[in-house]
Amino acid sequence: VVNIAVRSRASAETNPLYNDPFFRRYFNLPEQQQRLSAGSGVIVDADKGYILTNHHVVADAGEIAVTLKDRRRFTAELVGSDKATDIALLKIDADKLTALPLGDSGALRVGDSVVAIGNPFGLGQTVTSGIVSALGRGGINVEGYEDFIQTDASINPGNSGGALVTTDGLLVGVNTAIIAPAGGNVGIGFAVPIAMASAVMEQLIEHGEVRRGRIGISVQDLTPDLAEALSIAESYGAAVGSVEQDSPAAHAGLRAGDVIIAVNNRKITGSADLRNRVGLARVGSEVEIEYLRDRVRRTVTMRIEADETIAKPGSMSSRLEGAEFQDAAGNVVV
């Protein structure tokens, strides 16, 4: 785990009257001011010098400095950054690095012991312990793609981009956010699962950006009332509300009323989970969709196409940004 210091330029807030040439003649205040911030990062590839951190840690960075445990300091290159998952990838040219081995975030269970490592308040590397409080957490208005690990391990400002590891020392998450009404830790922190972070990292290395996929449907969570209306016994999945013409889903035969229950033989919990799986799948790859129609399980294979949707502002937190895409009925677009 490394410490990250970011030097960036931020626009100074000025009275709009100062934009008038007359006022600027006498009140020629600088339009930008220098801003310094601190965060954390995790070395994930010692040979290539790759470091995972958060998008919000390095957003608008002019210069990024990385300090290792042995106090060596390097200027980092920003390989790429993804606002929707709050993941960024840095690269440093250094030898004798040690990477954290990657774990399986999908194998985590509520109650598992975890350790958070980071650089809180710029004090230096700090270790705190706790448990996994919840999995697949979403709906906290932090990011467009939400599948957070919730933990009660102390995560404070500056821990962003740090490591969430198991007691075996395996990296299972990248710390990203806290719920802090008074600006401090209240025992509710969140981390991006390493499975999602790794998928983002692969695309940032290959393309410098994340090219999201889609299959051309709108879906909603399978609620108990909806399951009863569709005469379905399952209590999980995503109900298809509409199917776009000439989309991969349309060509595969999906239609409104179908209930998607698994992707590539892995059960999905709801509409957000489905969007995460499809959105981070490689464009052009094939996925196997298992769904229910008339209480009969069916399986179909379809090819992921590129999502050309332009991001629009969604509900923002004060510290992080993201967007959520819905149709007019409030269904999640996948």
UniProtKB/TrEMBL annotation:
MF terms in GO: serine-type endopeptidase activity
Sequence intervals crossing the membrane: none
Segments forming domain PDZ: 204-295
InterPro entries (alphabetical): PDZ, PDZ_sf, Peptidase_S1_PA, Peptidase_S1C
Coiled coil: none
Key words, A-Z: Hydrolase, Protease, Serine protease
Superkingdom of this protein's organism: Bacteria
This protein's GO CC annotations: periplasmic space
GO biological process, one term: protein quality control for misfolded or incompletely synthesized proteins
Family statement drawn from the similarity comment of this UniProt entry: Belongs to the peptidase S1C family.
Protein name: Serine endoprotease DegQ
Organism: Rhizobium fredii
